[in-house]
Design brief:
34% of the residues are buried. The N and C termini lie far apart (39 Å). The protein is globular and about 45 Å long. The chain has 9 helices and 8 strands. The protein folds into 2 domains: 5-89, Alpha-Beta Complex (DNA primase DNAg catalytic core, N-terminal domain), CATH 3.90.980.10; 102-203, Dna Topoisomerase Vi A Subunit, Chain: A, domain 2 (3-Layer(aba) Sandwich). The strands form 2 sheets. It has a 4-stranded antiparallel beta sheet with strand order 1-2-3-4, with helices on one face. Strands 6-5-7-8 form a 4-stranded parallel beta sheet, sandwiched between helices. The longest helix is centred in the N-terminal third of the chain and has 15 residues, at 5-19. By secondary structure, the chain is α/β, with parallel strands linked by helices. It has helices spanning 5-19, 26-31, 36-41, 102-105, 116-126, 141-147, 161-171, 187-194, 196-203; strands spanning 45-46, 61-67, 70-77, 87-89, 109-114, 130-133, 152-157, 176-180.
């Protein structure tokens, strides 16, 4: 559904406002191995003064979905791991692909993973172009067409049952290479544990 100009302006305004508070998430980001400058480039923020309709997001990490036309969605993550729900979205927002700009920036290969933090880890830190979806059940048919021209597509499957099922379902739609992560891990936790070289070895690329 096409967004109105006022909706997009609100998203842009909120993203800019929340991004000014990103230093408040420094401890959380450090625990995930994400440098503050990488979070800034992705325009992550923290909700301190919520825009209208964002009151329930107070204190959460804001994660903008950015396309060529600007910010098209915002998702919000709890900075305290004990807080539920872990993720919240805006009312009425449609599910979108995260980090879609990497489709144009990538060369002959691209990665797919679950979650924005994992996607940012691969794209912004490890240096492997990557797109993400909010969860294993969020894949849409037109995403397949978007990635059809890549010579290689790597799926980084979380080390759990939904992650494995997500990878297998995509393998029925795209000629992909499944990189199954160890039990109980995801991209970010493996990066914190093993560093960038782990992923470059998996995809057969050299670390920059």
């Amino acid at each position: 559904m096409k967004q109105s100009i006022s909706q997009k302006e609100l998203l842009e305004k909120a993203t800019h406002r929340y991004a000014g508070n990103i230093s408040l998430a420094q401890d959380y980001l450090a625990s995930r191995g994400i440098p503050l400058e990488v979070a800034r480039l992705a325009q992550f923020g923290v909700v301190v003064e919520p825009e209208a309709g964002h009151e329930a997001m107070l204190g959460r990490l804001s994660i903008p979905y950015i396309t060529k036309t600007g910010v098209v969605d915002l998702r919000f993550r709890a900075l305290n791991p004990a807080v539920e729900p872990k993720y919240m979205g805006l009312t009425g927002a449609e599910t979108r692909m995260y980090n879609v700009l990497d489709v144009e920036r990538a060369g002959d290969y691209i990665g797919i993973c679950e979650g924005e933090i994992d996607t940012l880890t691969l794209s912004g830190i490890v240096g492997i172009p990557c797109v993400g979806v909010p969860g294993a059940n969020s894949w849409k048919k037109h995403y397949t067409r978007l990635l059809a021209d890549f010579e290689r597509v790597f799926i980084f499957a979380d080390g759990d049952q939904p992650g494995m099922e997500f990878a297998r379902s995509l393998a029925r739609e795209l000629p992909v290479t499944i990189i199954q992560l160890p039990d109980g891990t995801d991209v970010n936790s493996m990066y914190v544990q093993e560093g960038s070289q782990y992923f470059h070895q998996k995809v057969g690329t050299s670390e920059l």
